[in-house]
Amino acid sequence: MKKAINYLYQTLTKSYVMAEMEARKLWHDPTELIARAVQPILWLGIFGEALSKVRAIPTEGYTYLQYITPGILTQSATFVAIFYGLYIIMDRDTGILQKLLVTPTPRLALVWGKMISAGLRGMSQAVIVFIFALILGVPLHLSILTLLGVVLIVLLGAAVFTGISMIIASIVKTRERFMGIGQVVTLPLFFASNAIYPIAIMPGWLQVVARVNPLSYMVDGLRSLMLAGSWNGVGMDILILAVSTLVISVISAWMYPKVVI
């Protein structure tokens, strides 16, 4: 029991150290976040505004711009996270990863540190989406409880996709292959979710994919909080994301040393 408590303590403290180190990189070089802000702005400002005029997609009583705002927020956060494995490959190529792996730091701490860091980057993207949505006049529910729920969902969602990214990085080994596979993973997951249209209008086989897609649960939770200001069903979305995070983090920790092989 004492060993388990000590391991958990070491894992949590080392995770914090790893996340703080990654956060400092972001603080000193925010240009990547600025560049990534362009995509959600284009989705909301052009795609969202244009389709709001068409009104061909059922949006549960909301305007289309309202409807896709949580989806674009999800996309922004997860697209940052899914490419986080690229940093692992870069660390390996520069020798940093090998030095980390020979330390007594628990592998799970290395994984959780990356997940927390990706969550922080995802939160910065969420702030950009919130600000731009308000500029466009999108009505959103803003309360302390709502914002706390949004933060939790974004952190968990970013963690899930960071874990997936790290698993991919453990398999493909090179930056070029990783970038190609990253695109193959992210775009299908985005379009096979309820981010920009309801699951009900999808063909049957795609509905099955959407219901096992973690991105759908992120969007569902964010949509309830941001648009309805309601926690109904959000607890289940958070539980699914939390379980997914735990499972994927264990798999990522097991595969982490394989990056250097």
Give an overview in words.
- The chain is mostly helical and 261 residues long.
- Helix content is 79%, strand content 0%.
- It has one domain (2-260).
- Helix 3 (38-54) packs across helix 7 (107-135).
Major sheet characteristics: none
What's the overall average pLDDT, rounded?
Answer: 83
How far apart are the first and last residues' alpha carbons, in Å?
34 Å
Helix content: over 70%
Order of helices and strands: HHHHHHHHHHHH
Low-confidence regions: none
Radius of gyration: 19 Å
Number of helices, where a helix is a run of at least 4 consecutive DSSP H or I residues: 12
**Integer count of domains:** 1
Number of strands: 0
Instruction: Classify the secondary structure makeup into a structural class.
Output: mainly alpha
Percent of sequence in beta strands: under 5%
Shape: globular
Q: Layout of helices and strands, plus pairs?
A:
Layout: H1 2-28, H2 31-36, H3 38-54, H4 64-82, H5 85-94, H6 96-101, H7 107-135, H8 144-172, H9 175-191, H10 204-211, H11 214-228, H12 234-255
What keyword list fits this structure?
single chain, 79% helix, 261 residues, mainly alpha
Short description:
The chain is mainly alpha-helical and 261 residues long. Helix content is 79%, strand content 0%. The longest helix is centred in the middle third of the chain and has 29 residues, at 107-135.
